[in-house]
Specification:
The chain is of the alpha/beta class. It folds into two domains: 97-315, Aspartate Aminotransferase, domain 2 (3-Layer(aba) Sandwich); 318-461, Aspartate Aminotransferase, domain 1 (Alpha-Beta Complex), CATH 3.90.1150.10. The protein contains 18 helices and twelve strands. It has helices at residues 12-34, 38-44, 49-55, 75-82, 97-110, 126-134, 157-169, 184-190, 213-222, 281-285, 287-293, 295-299, 305-315, 318-337, 356-362, 390-397, 427-433, 450-461, and strands spanning 118-123, 148-152, 174-178, 195-201, 227-230, 248-252, 266-271, 342-346, 376-381, 403-404, 414-417, 440-444. The strands form two sheets. The chain has a seven-stranded mixed sheet with strand order 1-7-6-5-4-2-3, sandwiched between helices. The protein has a five-stranded mixed sheet with strand order 8-9-12-11-10. Helix 2 (38-44) runs antiparallel to helix 5 and helix 5 (97-110) runs parallel beside helix 13. The radius of gyration is 23 Å and the shape is globular. The termini are far apart.
Length: 464
């Protein structure tokens, strides 16, 4: 005979009450973390001793939950949980404890230094995060005219393809490109009563251009629509768009937030109470939470729990890595700018870069206030013919220590030629819109000694 040591079943109302207690406990832990400094938040998040002892056998580090499903004590708990009347993870396509640890920490980092409330949802990639963030605003609404979206043309090649090919060419959504993101009049001219959202990268990949987040947010909000910002190439250690008026921030955490280079991961963080012309009040109140429970659940862009924990572990050193990488990149940018075989260097830390003064105000190392400009630059190699790539390829193929790959944000320095890699498929016209020349070489500086990076670049330039 098997004797159960489980407590007697609770009623439905008792499970609902227990759910409220769980929510209140989470709010308590969030409030405590809000009082900490950035590095402390990144190290601990909301995972504490109480959770460790009650859930994880005292584990100091957040564990990986590889089980795809959660068991329930009785029918009443299952019913309440799957009605979303209490916190649950139920199935890893929707949620998982390991992803919760990453999501809650990220939401705290993105709202650091503010009273803003926000929710984060982790996705299988940065592109999945962009899709999850933008799809809900493009739904059919017979009370509105044909939908359009306004976006900076200076975006990552995959983002350009998602907007131009998948949204415009395949689904008929009017995509309006902003050619010069520093030109506020251009943003304002494109936005009208049928615009569903405004989108920009800060800084952009690979041209490293920026825009005035606060001013563009005001343009969007006049039309009661959200501003979505991809801040992958800044990270919350340098820039927190939500604090500047943006409504949703995207991170491809495959980059510097997960700088060890072991995982693909996307993060979508939305402040509560966003503007939108479409959708329910529930969607506006907590966009990321709503997205996870409904469209995310149905579309299935779930993050692997192992990847979530690997990225979470890298987050703990984010500020320190960003500081090192930013200092290195500025020194490399100055070296390249002075080199006779380089036409131009794109990096907001250079006084010659458009938007430098704006960058000094909006890109600052957290808890320091010192202006810093990130880990990525773009260099246009000097060519006799502006459409040529002869010297550029000689330089690129001569790199020795620096990796030739399409990656960025890693602890190892990586370089790529965007015209033949990340932006190849969008064609010449698309690259022209994004200000990408055949001679553009994007360099993502890692944590190596800066003198070794410069020596390798010097060796490669000597091959021209």
């Amino acid at each position: 005979m098997v004797v159960s040591d489980m407590a007697p079943p609770l009623t439905r109302d008792e499970w609902v009450a227990r759910g409220r207690e769980m929510v209140a406990d989470r709010e308590r832990r969030i409030a405590r973390a809000k009082a900490w400094k950035f590095d402390t938040v990144a190290t601990h998040g909301v995972y504490d001793l109480e959770q460790a002892m009650s859930l994880n056998n005292g584990s100091i580090m957040e564990p990986v939950y590889l089980s795809p499903a959660q068991a329930y004590r009785d029918t009443a708990e299952m019913e309440v949980a799957l009605a979303y009347e209490m916190p649950t993870w139920c199935y890893s396509r929707i949620a998982n404890p390991s992803t919760f640890f990453l999501e809650e920490t990220t939401a705290l980092l993105e709202t650091y230094g503010t009273d803003l409330k926000a929710t984060c949802v982790g996705t299988a990639s940065g592109m999945a995060a962009i899709r999850t963030a933008t799809d809900p605003f493009l739904v059919r609404d017979d009370d509105l005219g044909p939908a359009n979206m306004v976006a900076s043309a200076r975006v990552y090649g995959g983002t350009f393809q998602q907007f131009w090919v998948r949204r415009c060419q395949e689904n008929g959504i009017d995509v309006r490109w902003v050619i010069d993101p520093l030109n506020l009049d251009e943003w304002a001219e494109h936005v009208d009563g049928n615009t569903r959202f405004v989108y920009g990268e800060f800084p952009s990949n690979p041209s490293v251009s920026i825009f005035d987040i606060e001013a563009v947010a005001k343009i969007a909000h006049k039309q009661d629509i959200p501003l979505i910002v991809d801040a992958t190439c800044a990270s919350p250690a340098l820039t927190r768009p939500l604090a500047m008026g943006a409504d949703i921030v995207i991170q491809s955490a495959s980059k510097v937030m997960g700088g060890s280079g072991t995982s693909i991961c996307g993060l979508l963080t939305a402040r509560h109470d966003i503007p939108s012309k479409v959708g329910s009040d529930e969607m506006r109140a907590d966009f990321a939470g709503w997205a996870k429970l409904w469209p995310f659940r149905d579309n299935g862009p779930a993050l692997n729990p192992m990847a979530a924990i690997l990225v979470l572990n890298d987050l703990r050193t984010l500020r320190m890595r960003i500081e090192k990488m930013s200092r290195t990149t500025l020194e490399v940018a100055r070296y390249l700018e002075a080199h006779p075989k380089v036409d131009r260097v794109h990096y907001p830390g250079l006084e010659s870069c458009p938007g430098h003064e704006l960058a000094c105000k909006t890109m600052r190392l957290v808890d320091s206030g010192e202006p810093m400009f990130g880990y990525m630059l773009a260099a246009d190699i000097a060519e006799a013919d502006p459409d040529s790539q002869i010297n550029t390829r000689r330089f690129y193929d001569a790199l020795s220590m620096i990796w030739r790959a399409t990656d960025l944000g890693r602890v190892k320095t990586v370089a790529t030629l965007n015209a033949i890699s990340t932006h190849q498929q969008q064609g010449e016209e698309g690259r022209r819109l994004a200000s990408i020349r055949p001679s553009t070489c994007r360099i993502s500086c890692g944590i190596e000694d800066v003198h070794d990076i410069i020596a390798d670049l010097d060796h490669a330039l000597a091959a021209i």
